[in-house]
Amino acid sequence: MGRRSEPSDPVPFPHPSSHLSPARCSLLWIAFPLAGLLAPYDAIAQTVRERVSVEVITVTVAARDAAGRPVQDLRAADLALSVDGKPVAIDTFLVESRAPTAPAGVATPPTPDLVEPAAPAPSPAPRPLEIAIIADESSTKSFDRRDVYDELSKFLSAPAAGGRRFLVARFTVRGLVIECPWTSDTAAARAAIARLRAHPAVERIPTAAELGNGDGPPTYPVEIEYMRRHFLASLLQAFAAFSDTSARRELVLVSGGTLLARPEDLAGPLLASQRPSDQIGRSSPRSREFFKSQEAERDRGTFQLWSRAISSVPSDALNTGDLVAKALERDIVLVPIAAEAFDRGTNPGVDKKWPSRSSPGDGTGPSAGSVSLHMGVAQVMMGIAEDTGGEPILVPRRTAARLAEIENRSSFALTFLDPASGDHKYHRIEITCRRPGVHIDYRRGYRIATEEERTLDRVVARFLQPRRDGNPLAVTASLSPAVSRDGRNVTRVSLRYSPPRETTPTEDRGVELLAVGEDTQGNRTEPIRWAGKASRLDSSTFEAMLDLGVPAGSFTWSLGVRDQPTGLVSYLLTPSRP
After folding, report:
1. Domains of the chain, with CATH numbers?
2. Which pTM value belongs to this model?
3. Is the dihedral of CA 403, 404, 406, 411 positive or negative?
4. What is the pLDDT of residues 281-304, one digit of tens each?
């Protein structure tokens, strides 16, 4: 038997404490079901994927005129592209036509195959579309959700061209519940929507109208912020569960918007709900566009986002800017649906004025708070949709028609060479159209994640569905309690794996580990990363040992193990038994 490496403490990000303190871990209590959220990843050579992703950026562009009709003859010459304010040449520009999916009676004009005035070429097949439908049941009325569910069923029943895959989930006080894992079977997705409609959850957080009017039971800021953190963390995990293929990715979010608003936007209404209505102040919520915020300068890399997802420090909590950051990185279009009905009379519509019920015109009545808060929530939805290249749906009963319109609209795949040469920072994209009266939708920025960050996304997403594949190194892991050199109780990990045969065998080889632990209550450790040497055990097997700075207990560990010489990564989910 060959040499073994000595146990050593991993380098965490940041360094985890020697125990799971409530301050760091108790807030992320949501127990996610181990069923069906993680989409299979294509078996693509990682070295090639990294090289290509660093060089070429793809942006999906949709165009419409002043009346909202699709513009189908857009050309590259009509557009001017800049990155961080500097002009960049458009490399390729092709139409992605899709056959009509609109309900019967809605005509969809034909689209040209190639819009660039270059030599004719056959139109590429439409990229498959991945749509995750997430219903926020924690802060929307069941009858409002019912209307949206009916509309979603209509949308799913319409014929479609090209491949489509769906995921259906709901967010409740128990966390993210998967109703339908990723599937190309629209009947299965419709059945999941039908279950949501038939068995609605009761909301736990007041709607925007209730907060603005001071209606309902008293609600405290800490309660809403508690749910808000879990909600945003759940959406980050849903982002991580999309595939790494070339598919178009879209997340349809059904929500009343309370948990999307900033804490400062809710401060006035929350205080108002705990004191007489004549003391209600008017809030001033505003949309925070990602690249117009000072927070755009912060490092929103994958490690920091997942660390902030379990943070108990209010100033370091997740916000909608983090959603935008991750959506830009993963090229996911956000389509928020305002589930709180505009046309039922509970809330003001965008073209209506809320009749004041006290002190007309003074801006201090309960209706004024409702108008302000609800309009602020709508602005947040519009902001996150615009920044990610999507469109909000603010009238629930038009959901099917609007989704069909968005999907039917011809889009254009624009590519350009990354002028930053893959520096792994966020960069702002600006595309202007020289043709008057044409509005274009596109994601407002991009970031190329490191291969290590992509691995961490997969490690976190694996909690949601243990995959049977994804272990090219045949890794096995055993975890046991141990005492470190400095006397701490730790979890000792022994990794054994068999890399591909090499022409020049070595006695040891570099190995990297990414690990995240989750206890039975859903509390998680911060991401831990370690790099070291694995020693040869026999002709085909290597072993590495390390200590995780967390005591052994009833934890499930999601591990990503990378063999440095080959770049191959294996993923596995394993319990740690005391």
Report:
1. 11-30+468-576 (2.60.40), 56-121+412-446 (no CATH), 129-409 (3.40.50.410)
2. 0.79
3. positive
4. 333 333 345 665 554 555 567 888
